[in-house]
Amino acid sequence: MISYENGQYLVGLAKEAVLIYLDEGRKIEVPEDCPEELKERMGIFVTLNENRQLRGCIGYPEPVESAVQATIDVAIAAACEDPRFPEVTMEEYPELTFEVTVLSPPEKLEVSDPLEYLEKIEIGRDGLIIQKGYRRGLLLPQVAVEHNMDVQEFLEHTCMKAGISADSWLDASSDVYTFQGKVFQ
């Protein structure tokens, strides 16, 4: 995972990306002074909160872009493309808090019995991706902690996020992946 300083750099970059996009309608370029570590591909999520309420959250679970480029892309998407919310306005911007979560690559959990997931997943450490067919749901590690979920509830809510029944994690045709995240605010 990345250093605290580089995490704070990404938070500042997310804030700048959203501000410039809202103010000027353009996407910023990757800064030339970008730390080397942040040129590596990483999974990144940006979460926006307003008055402690979710206002937008979008990300790349897989390391498909450099951390800096991913942060710029998903910060703007969290502000303007999260289908659950209207676009953020300039008037709202000062009230927003920004959170950048840097993800480890997802790893598929191999089990002989789905009930083994209850022992393998650790609340507070693991985020979840559940995939069944073309349906896929993801919840960041902090979601289970913030909502006081146990492992079974976390699995069920991840299934619901995928648009499949809450007990789909028990189905052998569902794949469960874990990842870890480091949160910067």
List keywords for this structure.
185 residues, globular, Glycoprotein, Type 4 Pilin, seven-stranded antiparallel sheet, Dna Ligase, domain 1, 26% strand, alpha+beta, 2 domains
Brief overview:
With 185 residues, this protein is α+β, with helices and mostly antiparallel strands.
Overview of this protein structure:
- By secondary structure, the protein is α+β, with helices and mostly antiparallel strands.
- A hairpin with a 2-residue loop joins strand 1 and strand 2.
- Helix 1 crosses helix 2 (67-80).
- Helix content is 31%, strand content 26%.
- It has helices at residues 4-24, 67-80, 117-120, 141-146, 151-162, and strands at 43-50, 53-60, 96-103, 107-108, 126-132, 135-139, 174-184.
- It has 2 domains: 4-103, Glycoprotein, Type 4 Pilin (2-Layer Sandwich); 107-180, Dna Ligase, domain 1.
- Strands 1, 2, 3, 4, 5, 6 and 7 form a 7-stranded antiparallel β-sheet that branches.
- The protein has 5 helices and 7 strands.
Mean pLDDT: 95
CATH topology call of the largest domain: Glycoprotein, Type 4 Pilin
Low-confidence stretches: none
Distance between the termini: 15 Å
* Structural class estimated from helices and strands: alpha+beta
Count of individual domains: 2
Shape: globular
Summarize the helix and strand pattern as letters.
HEEHEEHEEHHE
The percent of residues in helical segments reads 25-40%
Number of helices: 5
CATH class group of the largest domain: Alpha Beta
Percentage of residues in strands = 25-35%
CATH homologous superfamily title of the largest domain: Hypothetical protein ph0010, domain 1
Q: Main β-sheet: number of strands, strand sense, barrel status?
A: 7 strands, antiparallel
- Supply the CATH architecture of the largest domain: 2-Layer Sandwich
Beta strand count? 7
The whole-angstrom Rg is 17 Å
